[in-house]
Design brief:
The complex is a heterodimer of chains A (about 110) and B (about 120). Chain A has about 110 residues and is mainly beta. Helix content of chain A is about 0%, strand content about 50%. Chain A is built from no helices and 12 strands. In chain A, the strands form 3 sheets. In chain A, strands 2, 5, 6, 10, 11 and 12 form a 6-stranded mixed β-sheet that branches. Chain A starts with a strand and ends with a strand. With about 120 residues, chain B is mainly beta. The N and C termini of chain B lie far apart (about 35 Å).
Chain lengths: ~110, ~120
């Protein structure tokens, strides 16, 4: 079945550091790939997405590129801020599975000033 | 416009009792999903409604769980004879048409604690 694997957390960085959160997936066909974020005390919200190979999703300084050859969708940001502290979830969906989201385990990011 | 809303926000119940969780999707969204977020299992899919089609119940963990969606809008997730392992945050999401490229919008969740 479908699965998503994220790098284990928690991740702690200093402000302005470079961030990478690794995400790899297993799925048949051509899934869409997502990063969702859960800020403290808030609900899950979409951060960015990519729907086909080589697409790059970007939002709020975050980027991720859909790499079909390595089945990866790593999240990156060049300079993190304290306000980026949150839990980040990588996810995929496929049309043939009713477009349900299959999530990774989540990565807790803490950014210190 | 309003986002996805869920009620109650918190629910404490005793083992063996039944509970009902409610979800109000974004107006006009035809697809509705229920997920569960728990410490041991992460975020897992429970059930999916798309328009008037039969729901995809393949993620429901046992026959104690059921859900319905009335009039293509509000949905209720019912857990009968609750067990302690049912303790989790239950999340509802909706999307415009249910396609794989669409964004799912999540509600704030219902935190269920079974004593």
């Amino acid at each position: 079945g479908d699965s998503v694997t994220q790098m284990e957390g928690p991740v702690t960085l200093s402000e302005e550091a470079f961030l990478t959160i690794n995400c790899t997936y297993t799925a048949t066909g051509y899934p869409s790939l997502f990063w969702y974020v859960q800020y403290p005390g808030e609900g899950l919200q979409l951060l960015l997405k990519a729907t086909k190979a080589d697409d790059k999703g970007s939002n709020k300084g975050f980027e991720a590129t859909y790499r079909k050859e390595t089945t990866s969708f790593h999240l990156e940001k060049g300079s993190v801020q304290v306000s980026d502290s949150a839990v980040y979830f990588c996810a995929l969906s496929r049309e043939t599975s009713g477009s349900r989201l299959t999530f990774g385990e989540g990565t807790q990011l803490t950014v210190n000033p | 416009g309003a986002g996805v809303s869920q009620s109650p926000s918190n629910k404490v119940t005793e083992k063996g009792k039944d509970v009902e969780l409610r979800c109000d999707p974004i107006s006009g969204h035809t697809a509705l999903y229920w997920y569960r977020q728990s410490l041991g299992q992460g975020l897992e899919f429970l059930i999916y409604f798309q328009g008037n089609s039969a729901p995809d119940k393949s993620g429901l963990p046992s026959d104690r769980f059921s859900a319905e969606r009335t009039g293509g809008s509000v949905s209720t997730l019912t857990i009968q004879r609750t067990q302690q392992e049912d303790s989790a945050v239950y999340l509802c999401a909706s999307s415009l048409g249910g396609g794989r490229v669409e964004t799912q919008y999540f509600g704030p969740g219902t935190r269920l604690l079974v004593l």
